[in-house]
Structures are given as C-alpha cells and as structure tokens.
Amino acid sequence: MITLVYVLIPILALFVGGALYRLAYALPRRSFGELLSPTCHACGDPLPTLYLIPLVGTFLNKMRCPVCGEKRGVGCFLSEVTFAVAALLLELFVGLSFLFLIYLVTAALLLILSLVDLDIKEVPHGILFGILLLGVLLFVLSFFPSVRLTAAVWWEHLVGAFIVSLPLFIVMMITGGGIGGGDIKLMFCLGLLLGYKLVLIAFLFGIAIAALVSVILLLAFGKDRKFEVPLVAFLAVGFLLAVLVGDKFIALLFA
Ligand SMILES: [Zn+2]
User: Within 13 Å, how many C-alpha atoms sit on residue 51's CB side?
Assistant: First the structure.
C-alpha cells in the first residue's frame, strides 16, 4: 500500500507540474481559462485537451502549435519533470509525513515563483504570502515540543527570517539595486520556514549554483551578451537541496 503511494505521488506530481506551469502563465495575465483549456501562447487558439497529458502533451505535433505552427516551449515539459523529481526526492529523503506535505507545497509555490520570475521578472506577492503562511505555521508549531515538525526551535526560525534577508536588504540599500526586493522577501519567508541553519545552506547552495551557471553561460556565449540571472529559480533549487541534505551537510561541517 505504502509502495503504491510512493509510486503514485511522483506520477500525480507530473500532472501538478503541468498545472503549475499553466498557473504561472495565467496568474500575471489573469487568464485562468488557461488552466483547464490550454491555448497557444502565440496565436491564442485553443490546443487539444490531449496537451494536458504530462510529457506526451509537449511532444504532440512535434512541439508545435497545430494551428499556427509556432514552436511550443519545453517549459511545460521541464515544469512537469522538475516537480515530479522534487516530489520523488522529497518522499525519499523526508519520508511521507506532514513535513513532507509542507515542503511539497513550498516546492510548488517556488516553482510558480521561478516560472513567473523567468517569464516577466516579477515576484507575485500572493505566492510569497503562501510561503510566509507555511513559515508562520512551522514557527508557531516550534513553540510546542510535542508537535513541532523540524529540529529547529522557535528562535532559530525567527533568526532564520533575518539572517539572509537583512544583509541582502542592507546591500540593496547601499548599492541601490543588483538584488531584487522579491529575492529579499523570499529569503525572509524561507528563513522563517527553514530556520537559520537550513536557510543559510539554501542561500549558499542557490548562489553557488547561480554563479556556476553564470560562468558556464559566459564561457559558452562570450561576455558581450548580457545575462540576467533569474535568482528565484536558483534559490528554489537551494531550498530543495537544503531540505534534502542540509542536515547531513551541517553534521559534516560541525562534526
Ligand atoms: Zn498557435
């Protein structure tokens, strides 16, 4: 029975990943019809319902819109796969628990944030608020040893909210840019959720991967082209790595 659940969750996550991709497109445009009847983002014509099937949908009609022939991005496919892999890793590393559910919902919200950030370079406050609520929940539960879900105690959650966001805020004030306000608010919410140890690790992982990818892009395409690093997506990867292996990483560092 449990094995079945372990198999079903990533399969369901494929569908959810596709839905999250459509939601991230619909949200800033207020076009929520997109969720159930996907349209071609180029010509606006409705796509066949078959396109809602994960993985298959992307490759139908050679990844082109059947009406106008415009290329359909691989975004939906990547979104499906990313969320399914995140769900699989979370269930394997965290185990099926209430904490797993909270991390999974956070991952879903982070996926929407990343997609919207990549799409229109904005960080929607509604989604941030969702992450904040989950953070408040873990913070409140941390006051009660009998029901708390994480190893972190209440002040660790509180310190976590500021330990990354406050220095970033000061840097933004001094430099007048470079770091977006959205990134700072996100690190506040994630810090409250994770506690200071894990949020530091999430941030370090996220920045390290962002730097690595930037260097690779620079080497591949030359320094003439300007790249804007979509930081939210990297911070999301940092979050996932922190909840998966953060505790082991801490144990290794302070052994
Ligand atoms: Zn089209």
Answer: 24
167 CB-near residues (< 8 Å, 6+ apart): none
Q: What's the whole-number mean pLDDT along residues 168-195?
A: 90
Q: Near ion ligand 1, which residues have CB within 5 Å?
A: 40, 42-43, 65, 67-68, 70
* Contact present, 86 and 13 (Cβ < 8 Å): yes
Cα-based distances in Å from 86 to 48, 79, 93: 28, 10, 10
Q: How far is the CA of 47 from the centre of ligand 1 (A)?
A: 8
What residues pair up with 39 in beta bridges, in sequence order?
46
Q: How far is the CA of 184 from the centre of ligand 1 (A)?
A: 37
The helix (H) or strand (E) run that includes residue 16 is: helix 2-29
User: Considering the entire predicted model, what is its pTM?
Assistant: 0.92
Query: Between residues 255 and 153, which one has the greater pLDDT?
Result: 153
User: Between helices 181-194 and 154-163, what is the axis angle to 10°?
Assistant: 160
Classify residue 175 as exposed, middle or buried by CB count within 10 Å of its CB (0-12, 13-18, 19+): exposed
pLDDT at position 36:
79
For the stretch 229-255, pLDDT in tens is 788 999 999 999 999 999 888 888 877
Distance between terminal CA atoms of the chain? Answer: 38
| Distance (Å) from CA 71 to ligand 1 centroid | 8
Question: 145-149, 213-217, 224-228, 232-236: which has the minimum mean pLDDT?
Answer: 224-228
